[in-house]
Amino acid sequence: MSPASINYVYINLAKRLDFPSEITFETPAFASFQDGEIDFYVQSLEKRTRYAIRMNDDTLAVDTAKAALEAGNVDFLLYLADNTHGNVDGKRITLPIYSMNRFHF
């Protein structure tokens, strides 16, 4: 993922802190789990649902995000990718990065 893509997602998440808030004040946050990292950690304000957001296909990063989901540290895993049409597989959601603004937490 390019720095522009990461900035796009961060700005999109930061706007969701404005009135009316969609996500909690402490997020969007960069996060780590065990020996890896998760690009963003977000918690919805209304439902208190926790999301790990990954933006690349790095094997270690994907394994870290999956481990956080399996350990119960997050409720859903949101993958943002350049070349995808989107998919939902249980608690794993894959979206094209350009549709991030339409996703509701």
For this structure, the CATH topology is Trna Endonuclease, Chain: A, domain 1
Number of domains as seen in the coordinates: 1
What gross morphology would you assign?
globular
Tell me the strand percentage band: 25-35%
Q: Structural class given helices, strands, pairing?
A: alpha/beta
Radius of gyration: 13 Å
How would you state the average pLDDT, rounded?
A: 84
Secondary structure: elements and pairs:
Elements: H1 3-15, E1 29-33, E2 36-43, E3 50-54, H2 59-70, E4 76-81, E5 87-89, E6 92-96
Parallel strand pairs: 3-4, 4-6
Antiparallel strand pairs: 1-2, 2-3, 5-6
Describe the structure concisely for a colleague:
With 105 residues, this protein is α/β, with parallel strands linked by helices. The protein has 2 helices and 6 strands, in the order αβββαβββ.
Fold and architecture overview:
This protein has 105 residues and is of the alpha/beta class. It has one domain (3-102): Trna Endonuclease, Chain: A, domain 1 (3-Layer(aba) Sandwich). Helix content is 24%, strand content 30%. It has two helices and six strands, in the order H-E-E-E-H-E-E-E. The chain has helices at residues 3-15, 59-70; strands at 29-33, 36-43, 50-54, 76-81, 87-89, 92-96. Strands 1-2-3-4-6-5 form a six-stranded mixed sheet. Strand 5 and strand 6 form a beta hairpin. The protein starts with a helix and ends in a 9-residue tail after the last strand. The model has no long low-confidence stretch (mean pLDDT 84).
